Amino acid sequence: MDELNLKITIVGLVGFAVLTLLIIFFIITVLRNQRLKVKLERNQTLKDIQLLENERARIAADLHDDLGSLISAIKLNLECINTSDHPENNLIIEKTASYIDSTMQKIREISNDLMPKILEQNGLIPAVADFINKLDTKSKAKIKLINKIQEEDTISKEVKTHIFRIVQELLNNAVKHANALEINLHLSLMNKIILIKVNDNGVGFNEHLDISKMKSDGLRNIIRRSQLMDGKLFLDTGINKGTSFTIEIPLKNEQPC
Question: Which of 10-24, 221-235, 239-253 has the lowest mean pLDDT?
Fold first, then answer.
């Protein structure tokens, strides 16, 4: 009887051990699949954003080079028209030339918004300041930049692009959707942490909403870019209470593209 009990105990222990191993194997498999899924999603997001940046660069180049050259040629031909026989047409030509100049200026603005040369040539902070100046002229909002980033050299080109796009989206949202009249942008770099903070006095929204599921492409792009840099996003808002976005981005030796 004792021998039988011993065998039953051994069989039970073996069964328990096998079951435990199966559970561990199942958990490891689930974790591996989850990591693979996250990696695939991250790679797809990287690919999508890179395609977006490439497409922006292409459109900006087409606007500046092809369309810009064509409109310049139209203006040149317009200036060659002889109006000596019909001097009354001078006014029409002058107005048309002014329209062409306005169109050229608009093309330059759109091209620069798509792919700002100042970001590549002068750096992140000058590009942000330039964007704020242009946004100031187009809106009633008063935008204040508080910059505490002293050394841009430690930030890679790819991360600068991500940060610039995030700032663009945050400020545009505050102006266009929040109807804010006062907006503060804080940028700092301390202990290898880049801090982006934008607060406004706009209409705000329900703080319990899941912003990742909101219809705004701008907000989704902010989340995607933040996640690519392993950043943390914090939101403080409420209806008619303004909105405050805070994003913390760890500065690494090797940054994702």
Answer: 10-24
User: Can you give the residue range of the structural domain that contains 232?
Assistant: 118-250
Question: Which of 115, 149, 178 delimits the end of a domain?
Answer: 115
Q: DSSP secondary structure string, 161-203?
A: HHHHHHHHHHHHHHHHTS--SEEEEEEEEETTEEEEEEEE-S-
pTM tops 0.70: no
Interval 38-48: pLDDT, tens: 666 666 666 76
CA separation for the pair 167, 112 (Å, rounded): 15
Task: Specify if 257 maps to a domain.
Answer: no
- Tell me the DSSP string of 1-24: -HHHHHHHHHHHHHHHHHHHHHHH
What is the number of structural domains in the chain?
2
Check residue 218 and give its pLDDT. Answer: 75
